[in-house]
Amino acid sequence: MSFLLAAMMIFGGPAKAWKASEAAPIIWEEAEKAGVDPYLAAAIAWRESGFSATAKSKTSDCGIMQINLKFSEHSCKELMDLRTNIRAGMKAIVYWKKRFGKRDKLWICHYNSGNKCYRRSRNYAKRVLKTMRELKQLTQQLRFYSYLRPWAGL
Q1: CA distance 42 to 86
Q2: Spatial separation of the C-alpha atoms in residues 38 and 71, rounded to whole Å
Q3: What secondary structure letter does DSSP report for 61?
Q4: 90, 121, 85: which is closest to 105 by C-alpha?
Q5: Which run of H or of E encompasses 144?
Q6: Domains of the chain from N-terminus onward
Q7: pTM for the complete prediction?
Q8: DSSP string spanning 80-124?
Q9: 103 contacts 7 by C-beta, under 8 angstroms
């Protein structure tokens, strides 16, 4: 988990590092509980809100995972709580994954747009998968670096 945190902090840059440091352990824990790849969950959080727990869209999407109020039992105020929002995000991911199976681009597209998969949502799905691969690659590089230089502090 510490490598994912480091990768998220580097990926988001200095301005987003503190947001990533708060979100990473919760994303990791809730993703594992839900049986979701933590790197995928982190990539969705990055693409949805830039790791911002207080993000709110014009279309009633709230929090770090940008949960739409039409699909949630929580209010937007409740979804501003990081853990509540991430838990709702994992619930949504599991729902769409069950519905569309191993077709990652398709269920990610529906996570983003709901019942219809538009072109912009298909592009979003490609960006999420690219971000997930980049986070995994950065994490592997950090692990390798810490193996070579154990005193580096990771």
Answers
A1: 10
A2: 22
A3: E
A4: 121
A5: helix 119-148
A6: 2-84+91-142 (1.10.530.10)
A7: 0.84
A8: TSHHHHHHHHHHHHHHHHHHHTT-HHHHHHHHHHTTS--HHHHHH
A9: no
CA distances, 63 to each of 53, 79, 140 (Å): 5, 6, 29
The structure tokens listed for 112 are 């983003």
Q: How many residues does the chain have?
A: 154
Cα 84 off chain centre by: 14
98: Cβ contacts below 8 Å, ≥ 6 apart? none
| Amino acid residing at 112 | N
d(CA 27, CA 85): 10
Largest CA distance in the chain: 50
Positions in the chain short of pLDDT 50: 151, 154
With a CB cutoff of 8 Å and minimum separation 6, the contacts of 36 are 90, 93, 94, 97
Distance CA 9, CA 85 (A): 20
Whole-number average pLDDT of the chain: 84
CA angle 142, 148, 4 (to 5 degrees): 15
The Cα–Cα gap between 60 and 83 comes to: 19
